Structures are given as structure tokens and as C-alpha cells.
Amino acid sequence: MFEELSDATFDGRIAEVKAGACIFYKQLCPHCKNMEKVLEKFSRLQPEVTLLSVDIEQNPVSAGVCGAERAPTIIVIRDGKVAGRKAGLMNPREMAQFFDSCR
Amino acid sequence: MAQKIKNVVFIMLDTLQFNYLGCYGNKTVKTPNFDRFARNGVLFENAYSEGLPTVPVRRATMTGRYTLPFAGWQALSSEDTTLSDILWGRDVQTALVYDTPPMRLPKYGYSRGFDYVKFCPGHELDHTTFAGRELDPSMKPIDYTSYSMAYNEKGELIDDSSTALLEEIECFLKIRQEWRSEEDNFVSVVAREADRWLRDIRDKKRPFMLWVDSFDPHEPWDPPSIWKKEPCPYDPEWKGNPILLAPWTPVEGRITDEECAHIRALYAENIELVDKKIGKLLDSIRDQGLWDETMIIITSDHGQPMGKGEHGHGIMRKCRPWPYEELVHVPLMMHIPGVEGGKRIKGFVQNVDIAPTILEALGYLDDLGAQGGAFGFPVFGAMDMQGHSLLPMVRGEVEKVRDFAIAGYFGMSWSIITEDYTYIHWLLKNSTQNDVVKARHAGHDIMEDEAIWTCTVGARQDVPDEDELYDRRKDQFQLNNIIKEQPEKAGELLKQLKLYIGELKTL
Is the model's pLDDT at B456 over the cut of 90? Predict the structure, then answer.
């Protein structure tokens, strides 16, 4: 469900995405695992949204560029550009509202 | 599932303990209608209610959301989205026929959104509707329970539970004195009213979802033999008073083993009556030609502690917040048009799965969000549901919908049930549930008396000091705590349980 990106692929892939949400996570973070489930539920509401993921510790460049210091951080992508950023847990309803607010 | 499901009948039978049914392995209690229903339909062997008791179970079942991490016995809130909320403004007409007293107050919200609501008054916790009636002087409450449960050797009432017990019996007798036959029993009335809606009241051109909520076989334990003055068929040698009710207390020193056994016998006979009356309702659904287009679900909210060991871990009625097997494992059976009968499904299922299953059957599960309907008339979707539709498992598309079940009492106990183990984590050690409720709802003393998990005098929020681990394969009813022998397994399960509760708080 999540397409895993790295520092090498991040910029190129983001540029192609029309509508997407990317989670910056840390491997041992339990909140990140919960947030992935939230995003899975959110994507059932918005099936056209591409789900992406980046391991913060393995990919410091992309995480730094996107300001993803805390895990989890979610960025919303619209027409190939980062349109919004939010750190911390959200529920699916909050995620949907956040996504809609990033225009 | 080629056949189209047009309607749903959901039947909740309060306090129907799974292992009293023939289809769940009982060899004594006669439940031919439930057994036939299961034999020709789908039976779920491992169905568990999550948040106990009555009211949180209704909320979980109606909303498809877990209650255990969030709240216990309290009103439905405007944040909750129920099945009837989702079906409001759709073609499906909805009806609720019930006598379950804790659901009765419209203000409490559990009748919200149904197109048709019929409450049949009088059952156990309805202490008000008939309170003004005179009791026939020949009927004395103490003649309908054991003297020694209410009075000590000096002839004095033992405690507050004694007073509550006699008042409860008196309240019931004021209604019972007017009954003339089995047709007047609570379950008979509810089944008849449900049938009346199906036959005479509903719009026959529209699909429907009928929710039948019968408080029977919940106590009072008043099966027909008592009124016919015949021996109870499950305890024919009993010589004492009938025991319509018993105090909400630990049994040691208060209720003898023989009395507990007699209570269980009366309960079994009550179940026999429920089987007969629900069987009659099922026959009527068939006679009306609805069988092949109607999904029917039969389940319960919980079982009942009634004695020692596997019968109740030493308590009578739900007087402690203890989520053991006899309480939390529930029957769940379905008739699903187009699905071949005789299936017994082992995968863990929970009451939160019922609402998504009903919505999938009616074709509304994929409709997730609130939609702005025309002219400001929004309809709601299933977005907030945490349960899973069980139809993919019934169709054989997936083997399971979850790896384990959870159960417990909000703020007091959590348990995790896996194929191999059950683990019980006691939360309430130095606080009361009201402390938890107040912390979560600062500034709101929400329902000071009703936010508790049970409404009776004898109920106390006592829990054991140590967590418990049981080998579920050898010790299904949790009698031999092995936490000291397997501390690592216990730690692993506690971690899994806490992570899952955390996940549910997010989703």
C-alpha cells in the first residue's frame, strides 16, 4: 500500500505525484505504525491519493528538506509539490480534513 | 454470494451464555430452534464482546467502534454514528423493538434514528413504570428467593443487597401478577411485537433493518415451571423456594452451591423459552416469504456469572468487573441468503463487526464519509467503524479478520484473547471508574449515577491485585493462573494489548 522512497528517489517521485500523502517514520516508533493504519483507512476514503513512506533515519536529506524532525510527520503532495506538513498522530477524519486543507 | 440480500433482522438476546446452547456444545439444555438455525446457517465459534456490559455492548454493536479504550456505560453521544444514523435518509426503513431497560430512555440515545420504535416496559431494571401498582397481598417477595440470601440467623436483613433484592423481586411481581400464560412473558411480547411490525406496520415495498432487543433470558429467572408449580426440568429434585433473583454478591457464605445450581437450572429453562419464542419469530419470517432475501443475525451481549469456578469465578450476577470467559464469550449465528449452511467459523470476531457486516449486506459499507445531501440533509457513512464485515470470511475469501480479541470493562479491566492464551490486565487498582470518567470529561459530572457500569447496590469495583495469564487450550474458563510460570509470555501479551488499545484510540 505504501511506496517506500529514499533520498535517491524522493524528489523525482514526488514531482510525478498528482495527489499524495507521505509518512516520515522511524522503524521503532509505535505511533508511526498507528499512523500508517490511519493512512490506510484514509486512502479508502480517497482512493486516488498515492501513499508514500520515508524512513527518517535512513534518509536524512529528504527528511531535512521536508522539515520532518518528529516521527511521524505527514506531508501532503499536490501536483508534484509539497502542499502541507503536520507532525504527530491524527485520526482518519482529521487526516481527511488536513488533506483537504492543503490546497 | 449470488443471492441479493434485501433485508436484515438483527436479534440481540441479552445474557445468553454461549455454552448453554446445544449448537455450542451443551448436552443438557434444549435449544432446538437455535441449533437448527446454526446448523442451516453460519456459526462463529470465537465471538467476543469487547467493552462490557449491556450499554457499551449496544454502543459497540450499533457504531462498529470499540468502546473499551474510550468510555463505558453512558449515553450515545452526537460523536457516535450508528447503523440507524447511517441508514437514515436511505431507502432502508429501520425499526427497533425492545424491552432492554438500560436502552429505554430516548434521552440516552440508543433508540435514535430508528423509523419505528416500540419499547415493551417492565423488565429487570425498569423499576418505575409499574411502581405505583399494588402487589397482591398473597404474593410475598421473600417466597420467591432463598430466605438465607436476604436474612441472617437473627432474622435481620443482612445488608443493602438484601433490601435491594427484595425490592427488585417486589417490582417484578407487580408485573408478573397480571400474567396469565407464557404469551405474557417478556420475550413472548417482544417477539410478537417484532412480528407485528414485519406483518402489519412496515412498508412492504421498501427494504428494512429490524433490530430486536430482548432482555430475556436475563434474570429474573422466572421460567414457566415456577408458575405451573412444577419441578424445573433441569433441577427436578429442588425443594426450596423458587429463586427469581439472588443478591449481587460473591457467593461464598451467602449463596450455597445447591442454590447456584438451581439458579443455573432456572436460567437454562428461561433459555428454552427464549429458544421457543425466537424460533416462532423465525418461522414467521419464513412463512412471510422473507427468508431468501433477509439476513438474520442472532447474538448476545454477554453471559452471566452464577457461582463458583467456570460458572462465575465465585460471584453471582455481574457484581464485579471481571471479564472471564463465561461473561465475554458470546454466541453469534447468522442466516445469510446465498450462503450454504453448516459453516462453523473459528476466526476471532467481535461485536464491532456486526454493524459493518449489516452495512455490507445492505450495500452501504463502501459509503464511508458524511455526504452533504440535497437541501442540507446529510447522510452518514461507515468511516468511523473499526470492525470488519464478516461476509468475506463467510464467503471463504479470507480465513480471519483479526488475530486476537479483546474484552473488559472500561477503566477497570482489559483482556486479550488469543488462540493459545488469555491475559487479563487489571486497571482499576487505586481509583474508581468515576475518577476515570471525570478525568476524561473535565467539567462534566456526566451521569453521576449512570456512568457506572451497573446500577445495583451490591456491585463493587473490586479487582484482583495481580494480572492473570491462562492457557486457553487447556483452561478455556480461566481457573489456573499461570502468570508466575510464564512471565515472558505475560509481558509479551500485555505489550500487544497496550499497543492495540493505542491503535484503537487513533483509528
Answer: no
Q: Which residues of A touch B502 (CB under 8 A)?
A: 30-31, 34
Task: Please provide the average confidence, as pLDDT, over all residues in chain B.
Answer: 91
Q: pLDDT band at B102, cuts 50/70/90?
A: confident
**Contact between chains at B383 and A33 (C-beta distance less than 8 A):** no
Closest CA to B359 of B10, B2, B3, B58: B10
Cα(B136)–Cα(B141) distance, integer angstroms: 11
Which residues, at least 6 apart from A48, have a Cβ–Cβ distance to it below 8 Å?
A: A18, A19
Of A31, A35, A45, the CB nearest to B369: A45
- CB-based contact B384 A93, cutoff 8 Å: yes
- Of the listed ranges A13-17, B49-53, B198-202, B445-449, the least confidently predicted one is B445-449
Closest-CA residue of chain B to A44: B368
B42 Cα distance to chain centroid: 19
Q: What is the dihedral of CA B257, B215, B272, B457, to 10 degrees?
A: 10
Domain boundaries, chain B: 7-68+77-410+429-462
Domain residue ranges in chain A:
3-101
Q: Note the ipTM here.
A: 0.72
Q: How confident is the model at residue B411 (pLDDT cuts 50, 70, 90)?
A: confident
Does residue B383 register a pLDDT over 90? no
The pTM for the full model equals: 0.91
User: Nearest CA to CA, how far is B368 from chain A (Å)?
Assistant: 6
CATH number corresponding to A3-101: 3.40.30.10
**Do the Cβ atoms of B507 and A30 come within 8 Å?**
no
**Neighbour tally for B473: CB within 10 Å:** 9
Q: In CATH, what class is B7-68+77-410+429-462?
A: alpha beta
Q: Say whether residue B506 is in contact with chain A using an 8 A CB cutoff.
A: yes
